Automatic annotation (TrEMBL):
GO process annotations (BP): glycerol metabolic process; lipid metabolic process
GP-PDE domain segment(s): 34-335
EC number(s) from the headed UniProt entry: 3.1.4.46
Pfam families tied to this protein: GDPD
Transmembrane segments: none
The keyword Hydrolase is annotated on this UniProt entry: yes
Alphabetic keyword roster: Glycerol metabolism, Glycoprotein, Hydrolase, Signal
Signal peptide: 1-22
GO molecular function annotations of the record: glycerophosphodiester phosphodiesterase activity
Taxonomic source organism: Musa troglodytarum (fe'i banana)
Protein name: glycerophosphodiester phosphodiesterase
Catalytic activity: a sn-glycero-3-phosphodiester + H2O = an alcohol + sn-glycerol 3-phosphate + H(+)
Classification via InterPro entries: GP_PDE_dom, PLC-like_Pdiesterase_TIM-brl
């Protein structure tokens, strides 16, 4: 190719680029599609759920910051990405390193759980430990800050979020049944109370989203509050039967599905596209997709190992409403760039890549194995028994007055015991002797 052809090409490229840049709106408050929800704050940059990662998420332009709540031994709700402190803190090198136990209901293998230590013990003795999801490729996140930042209680998180430029906050709740039954703690009541105490329940400035994989948690919030409710489907699925969608309609406004449930992948090659996003949207749901990361090994080959190409594919190719990401900055930069919204005029590098395109040009010998069919979600997968009543379990947790909960976090279990005790006293007192 003669030199001037290259030149022509290059000039064309510059013109396209200039066209794009003139459309770029640098304002951070351009909250269009996709909605950007953090995952453990900007956990790609700083350790999960720390003041640093939340501040980074706000600075980077997330619409929602998220707090996965866990409970401590003294009944304080904290933001912690795992119920097992061994995964996300320095507990194994702390004075509490011997406190491990096995609780198969909530975790595979041994753990030192948030409810085994008090808040004081956690924040005085432990440091956060950065998550490194791609450690098998020796990819470490921000090593300088691998133990940086401070842990936050739910109350701290709510106070932090309140005056920030956010659409709202998201609280995710898991293990509610276990906590009620085995530890006598109602995490749903605890979250509702914290939202009330911090003024989120009666303010209109910011939205509150509650996310759970367990419908019984959302049903409880549906009955008692007006918060936005997100149902997370925690397995990769190819479809949802109509009755399951109707069921979810009863208690959720949004649905979060995995990336694979939109573009199934075999050995990092995209094999197709499901109709789930469209189907859920026509049933009236906003559809959020998890989990987006920047590490180049986390994207299928079809996306050229580029996190922006991946985001563009989900937004333009699949039309998702929101993305849940550990790097909100990447998503916000994508959203600010109006190249992606120019429709037909969009430069070719902003078109979605052809679905399954790589498979078609591959040597048949080199094709990845056919994907085992992913299941459909059925109503039976959605429906759960209601949350168990909070048992007055005489465990080490919240039982005796000494280890009990502070007054602002009353244990309903204990109240129930007191009530039964009181009524029997009254009954006995009124009985003729
Ligand atoms: C950028 O977005 C803001 C907020 O949406 C809007 O007020 C402003 O006019 C936009 N600027 C340009 C150049 O489009
Ligand atoms: C952690 O807490 C659970 C629930 O109270 C308890 O069963 C377990 O024994 C505790 N682990 C240790 C090592 O104390
Ligand atoms: C909101 O609730 C808080 C805590 O319950 C209360 O102090 C505050 O006065 C309420 N604000 C409004 C506007 O109702
Ligand atoms: C499921 O619902 C969609 C949209 O309402 C409808 O088109 C489709 O036929 C239904 N499928 C079944 C199996 O009932
Ligand atoms: C969901 O919560 C119910 C109690 O409401 C419990 O029985 C069930 O095991 C939970 N499901 C999962 C998958 O945790």
């Amino acid at each position: 190719m003669p030199f001037w052809n290259h030149l022509e090409c290059f000039t064309e490229f510059l013109i396209v680029l200039a066209g794009c840049y003139s459309h770029i709106n640098m304002s951070n408050s351009d909250h269009g599609k996709p909605l950007i929800i953090s995952h453990n704050g900007a956990s790609g940059v700083y350790p999960d759920c720390t003041d640093l990662s939340y501040q980074q998420a706000v600075t980077d332009g997330a619409d929602y910051i998220d707090c996965p709540v866990q409970v401590t031994k003294d009944g304080i709700l904290i933001c912690m990405s795992s119920i097992n402190l061994m995964e996300v803190t320095t507990v194994t090198t702390s004075p509490f390193s011997s406190l491990s136990s096995v609780i198969p209901e909530i975790h595979d293998g041994p753990g030192i759980f948030t409810f085994n230590l008090t808040w004081e013990e956690i924040h005085k003795n432990l440091k956060p430990a950065a998550s490194n999801p791609e450690i098998q490729y020796s990819i470490y996140r921000n090593p300088l800050y691998k133990n940086g930042g401070n842990f936050m209680r739910l109350g701290d998180f709510l106070a932090f979020g309140k005056d920030k430029d956010l659409t709202g906050i998201l609280i995710s709740i898991e293990n509610a049944a276990f906590l009620a039954e085995k530890l006598g703690y109602s995490v749903t009541d605890g979250v509702m109370r914290a939202l009330q105490d911090s003024g989120y329940s009666n303010q209109t400035g910011q939205e509150v989203m509650i996310l759970s994989k367990n419908s019984s948690v959302l049903i409880k919030f549906r009955q008692q509050t007006k918060y936005e409710l997100v149902y997370m489907v925690d397995e990769s699925i190819s479809d949802m039967v109509n009755s399951s969608i109707m069921d979810i309609k009863q208690f959720a406004h949004m649905i979060a599905i995995s990336k694979q449930s939109v573009y199934p992948v075999s050995q990092q090659f995209i094999t197709g596209q499901t109709k789930l996003v469209q189907k859920l949207q026509s049933a009236g749901f906003a559809v959020y997709v998890y989990l987006f990361r920047n590490e180049f090994v986390s994207q299928p080959w079809d996306f050229l190992s580029d996190p922006t190409v991946e985001i563009n594919m989900y937004v333009q190719g699949a039309g998702v409403d929101g993305i849940i990401t550990e790097y909100p900055g990447t998503a916000a930069a994508y959203r600010r760039n109006t190249c992606s919204k120019l429709g037909d005029q969009a430069p070719s590098y902003m078109s979605p890549v052809p679905v399954g395109g790589l498979l078609q040009i591959m040597d048949p010998q080199a094709l990845p194995p056919t994907l085992a069919p992913m299941p459909s979600l059925h109503a039976a997968d959605v429906v759960e028994p209601p949350l168990p009543a909070v048992s007055p379990k005489p465990s080490s947790f919240g039982a005796g007055e000494e280890s009990g909960l502070p007054p602002s976090q009353p244990s309903y279990g204990r109240h129930l015991v007191a009530l039964i005790f009181l009524s029997s006293v009254m009954l006995c007192g009124s009985l003729p002797v």
